[in-house]
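From the shared-data thread, chain only:
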Amino acid sequence: MIYEFEVPGKIIGKGRPRLNTNTGIIYTPTKTKDYETLVEQYYLLKYPKINQLQGRLKVSILAYFSIPKTTKKTEINEMLENNISPTKKPDIDNIVKVILDSMNKFAFKDDTQITKLEIEKRYGLEEKVYVKIEEY
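Structure, as tokens:
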């Protein structure tokens, strides 16, 4: 089975846990929690009655970043043809972490089920994340 969905909008990477020095409590930043909820919601919109995936999984993530406004016209086609890749934040590992953590215990039992992972940062006409999950 293959499950695919998109999350439009600004891409937020997984933020580092923070420590409240007054209470000593460690917490996840609000921006991270909000983005994880957004990913969950787009998954649920596409697959409202899906059961948790049980077997081994392959996950593919394409992160599309918008083209900077200061880009020369000659470089825009190069970017859209994937000859130039974005080398800006968020880091690729933080994109993976926020996407997988948002679906953990939700779309699949645990992210230990993921045995294959593909991730790529590209330029696109609109900023979004495309996620594909395959049982194999």
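Helices lie at 30-46, 73-80, 92-103.
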